[in-house]
Every structure is written in C-alpha cells, then in structure tokens.
C-alpha cells in the first residue's frame, strides 16, 4: 500500500503495519552498536598496550579480516553455520510466525531471532572500532601527561583507562555518533539477508514501488536520528574533555 502523505509515512515508520513498535525494530541496532564499541575499544587498547606481542598481532589480523569482510557475506555464513548446519538460532524474521504466547515468551522469541543480526553488525563494527581505538591510543600513549601520570606512581591500569583512554576515545565518539544514526536509520543489507522488518527494508521497498512520500518520510526520520545522535555526541565531548566544557 502506497503512502499518501509524508505524515502517514512517518506514522508507518513509528508504528509498523505488523504492530511492531519502532523501538523493537531499532533494538538490534543499539545492541550491535554498544557491543561493537565495548569490544572494539577494549581490543584496541590491548593492542596499543602490547603492540609487538603475538596476541596483538592476532587481534590486528582478525580486525583486518573483519574490516574487509562484506556484511551480507558474513550474515549468510552465520545463517549457514548456526541456522542450517548447527540449528541453534533462527535465520530469518523478527519472531516466529503464529506465536501465541504471553509478553515474556514473545520477548524471548524476539531476542532469539535477534542473535544472528546483532552478531553480523557487531563483528563488522568491532573491527572498525578496534583499528580506530588502536590508532588513537598509540597517538596519546606517549604524551607528556601519560608519562607524568606514570611518574606519580599510578597503576598502569589507571594510567591507561583514566588518563590515556579519556582523550583517545574522542575520535571514536565522533565516529560512533555518525554510525549510530545510520544504524538506527536502517541497515539495508542485514535487514534483507535476515528478512528483518526495519527502516532500511522499508526504504528499499519504497524505492521499488516508487513511493515517493514513503522515501521522503524515511529520509526525514533518518535525518532527525543522525542530528540527535550527533547532538548527544557533542554533549558527551564536554563530559569527557573539561577543556571543551570551559569553552
């Protein structure tokens, strides 16, 4: 069904026709994003602390593979591995068709369907954040204030995670603010591979049907998400860096 106006398209985005709320559709993006930032930053810090060790070289090679890996290919491989050969997780859809259970059973079913799409997005972004955090940490780890903190007798863990990482995470936060907006706006390839009813597929269907009000509605909603994500990122700059807050 074609959308008549942009307003009706925005209503369709916020509350899909199948009754799934937009927050449920966006939950997999948020989960994947925060998993990617957490594990990506941790692996990047480990590699920066021990740049010449065997473990750091192994993590760097894995991040290179993850950075170069097409997201749709990774999704297909995960479906083959964990949905066909070892049927642990469902490989398509947002929930089991015809499921008639209570709220708890429905939530468990959605989370079960969520595992493979989240892993697909998270693995790709973990590789990107790992490389970015490694480069940022290597840049600041030899700074004067880091050497001063070590000279004061602070533990290495406190020096790395309180002093060095606090400045190194600023460029990571910039990239995160941009990517979280695009993730919430829709990951078309992942949604297509896993037949997940997100905004990316909605946009793609609108393009195929030449439903211009729907396309405009998705673009407006996506733009708002990107603006809000970057605004929150700018506010976090002041929390992490007192110099920005004083300006």
Descriptive overview:
The protein has 247 residues and is mainly alpha-helical. The protein has a single domain, classed as MetI-like (MetI-like fold), CATH 1.10.3720. The protein is built from eleven helices and no strands. It has helices at residues 6-14, 22-49, 54-68, 71-85, 103-140, 144-151, 156-185, 188-193, 199-209, 212-240, 242-246. Helix 2 (22-49) runs antiparallel to helix 3 (54-68) and helix 6 packs across helix 7. The mean pLDDT is 79.
**Structurally, how many domains make up the residues?**
1
Taking all residues together, what is the mean pLDDT?
79
The Cα radius of gyration reads 21 Å
Largest sheet: none
What is the level-2 CATH architecture name? Orthogonal Bundle
CATH class: Mainly Alpha
Q: Could you give the distance between the termini?
A: 51 Å
User: CATH superfamily assignment?
Assistant: MetI-like
Order of helices and strands: HHHHHHHHHHH
Structural class: mainly alpha
Shape category: globular
Instruction: Tell how many strands the DSSP assignment holds.
Output: 0
CATH fold call: MetI-like fold
Number of helices: 11
Name the poorly predicted regions: none
Brief overview:
The chain is mainly alpha-helical.
What is the topological layout?
Elements lengths: L5 H9 L7 H28 L4 H15 L2 H15 L17 H38 L3 H8 L4 H30 L2 H6 L5 H11 L2 H29 L1 H5 L1
Can you give keywords for this protein?
MetI-like fold, single chain, mainly alpha, globular, 247 residues, 79% helix
């Amino acid at each position: 069904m074609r959308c008549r106006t942009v307003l009706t398209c925005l209503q369709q985005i916020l509350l899909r026709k199948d009754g799934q709320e937009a927050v449920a559709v966006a939950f997999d993006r948020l989960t994947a994003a925060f998993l990617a930032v957490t594990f990506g930053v941790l692996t990047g810090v480990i590699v920066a602390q021990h740049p010449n060790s065997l473990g750091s070289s192994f993590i760097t090679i894995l991040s290179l593979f993850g950075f170069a890996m097409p997201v749709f290919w990774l999704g297909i491989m995960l479906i083959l591995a964990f949905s066909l050969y070892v049927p642990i997780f469902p490989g398509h859809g947002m929930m089991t068709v015809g499921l008639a259970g209570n709220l708890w059973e429905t939530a468990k079913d959605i989370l079960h369907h969520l595992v493979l799409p989240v892993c697909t997005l998270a693995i790709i972004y973990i590789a990107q954040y790992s490389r970015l955090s490694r480069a940022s940490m290597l840049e600041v780890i030899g700074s004067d204030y880091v050497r001063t903190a070590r000279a004061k007798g602070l533990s290495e863990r406190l020096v790395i995670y309180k002093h060095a990482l606090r400045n190194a995470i600023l460029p990571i936060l910039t990239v995160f603010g941009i990517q979280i907006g695009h993730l919430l706006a829709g990951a078309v390839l992942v949604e297509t591979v896993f037949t997940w009813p997100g905004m990316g597929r909605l946009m793609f269907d609108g393009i195929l049907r030449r439903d211009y009000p729907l396309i405009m509605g998705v673009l407006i909603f996506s733009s708002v998400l990107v603006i809000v994500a970057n605004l929150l990122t700018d506010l976090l700059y002041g929390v992490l860096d007192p110099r920005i807050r004083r300006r």
